[in-house]
Write a structure and sequence with these properties.
Blueprint (H helix, E strand, L loop, with lengths): L1 E16 L3 E15 L10 H15 L4 E4 L5 E6 L2 E7 L5 E6 L4 E4 L6 H11 L8 E9 L7 E6 L13 E11 L2 E2 L1 H10 L1 E7 L11 E8 L2 E8 L3 E4 L5 H15 L5 E6 L5 E6 L2
Parallel strand pairs: 1-3, 3-7, 9-12, 12-15
Antiparallel strand pairs: 1-2, 2-8, 4-5, 5-6, 6-14, 9-10, 10-11, 10-16, 13-14, 16-17
Bound molecules: ligand LPXRUNBV.
The ligand Nc1nc2c(c(=O)[nH]1)N=C([C@H](O)[C@H](O)COP(=O)(O)OP(=O)(O)OP(=O)(O)O)CN2 binds next to helix 4.
Length: 281
């Protein structure tokens, strides 16, 4: 018998990609199980399926940096403070990240794709279900978005939860209204500007930064985090990168270019949530 659960949960994370660099991403998770019927006449109680998988996905993938451990572009070191990673991008540039172990997911694959992460997750979940479940399948899909969207990575050092991790991210739609009218042109501008971007807070910038490479570091509840990233993969902002403050930043930036226009921004963080901000200069 075959059982399925669509849209189990969504996971927000970043990953290292040879071509794109540091990519913020959001996937929806779907599950399917094969097995015989148990004494309740079920392959497995939906309550058990959803609780088990949501707990594992929230704990092991959500808000982590996914690192493909079989990639030739990776160098990985473990030290008493946690993990240090160096990643070579196709352009020849390098991204270096360090932080506590819990900020990373080490995916045994050559690259991070929806299929490789699903296959690795299924291996990790091998003993999570009763023996009556013969096979588990996971799949990850992207939210269908017909309008512009961007992928960003960031870290919120003041967040008491896992958003404090320096390199986690989202795939998010953006809606921009000028004098009440939706502007596809401005939405496309921001989707291009923030494609695979790191949004860094200026106060986290370190003195060793130069024109080529920006270095960020901070101490948060889970430990010390550092990131060195090519400057052309990064946009610096003077605020924390909560979605409230990013929506305001976008609205004010547009408003400065379009004085006298009422600018309203509806910025999403991942799927189905975000913030609205307005500006007029
Ligand atoms: N009001 C705000 N709350 C939160 C913000 C924010 O900008 N404004 N940001 C975060 C983090 O950036 C986090 O990455 C958001 O991820 P998400 O998975 O959506 O957050 P949750 O863990 O709360 O939700 P789950 O659906 O349970 O994963 C957090 N909060």
């Amino acid at each position: 018998m075959h059982l399925f659960v669509d849209n189990l949960t969504n996971v927000d994370f970043s990953y290292l990609d040879y071509r794109r660099g540091l990519v913020g991403e959001t996937w929806l998770a779907n599950a399917a199980l094969d097995g015989a019927l148990d004494s309740q006449g079920m392959v497995c109680d939906f309550g058990v399926v959803k609780k088990t998988l949501r707990h594992w996905l929230d704990d092991q993938l959500d808000h982590r940096l996914l690192v493909p451990t079989r990639s030739p572009h990776l160098k990985l070191e473990r030290n008493p403070q946690g993990v240090g990673i160096t990643w070579q991008v196709q352009s020849g540039e390098v991204i270096a990240v360090s932080g506590p172990e819990q900020a990373f997911a080490f995916v045994e694959a050559e690259s991070v794709t929806a299929d490789s992460v699903a296959a690795w997750s299924v291996q990790q979940l091998a003993s999570a279900f009763p023996t009556s479940v013969e096979q588990l399948q996971l799949s990850f899909t992207c939210e269908e978005i017909a309008s512009p969207y961007y992928h960003y990575s960031h870290g919120l050092k003041k967040h008491e939860g896992n958003c404090q991790r320096i390199a986690h991210g989202h795939r998010s739609r953006i809606q921009i209204f000028l004098d009440g009218e939706r502007s596809g042109e401005w939405e496309s501008n921001w989707a291009d500007r923030w494609r695979d971007i790191y949004l860094g807070t200026r106060e986290d910038l370190q003195v060793e930064s130069d024109e080529q490479t920006l270095h960020f570091a901070y101490q948060a509840q889970q430990g010390r985090f550092t990131l060195a990233i090519p400057a052309n993969h990064c946009e610096l902002v003077d605020c924390d990168t909560t979605v409230e403050q990013l929506a305001q930043y976008i609205a004010e930036t547009i408003s400065a270019e379009r004085p006298g226009t009422e600018v309203r921004v509806r910025a999403y963080e991942g799927i189905g949530k975000g913030a609205v901000a307005s500006a007029k200069s």
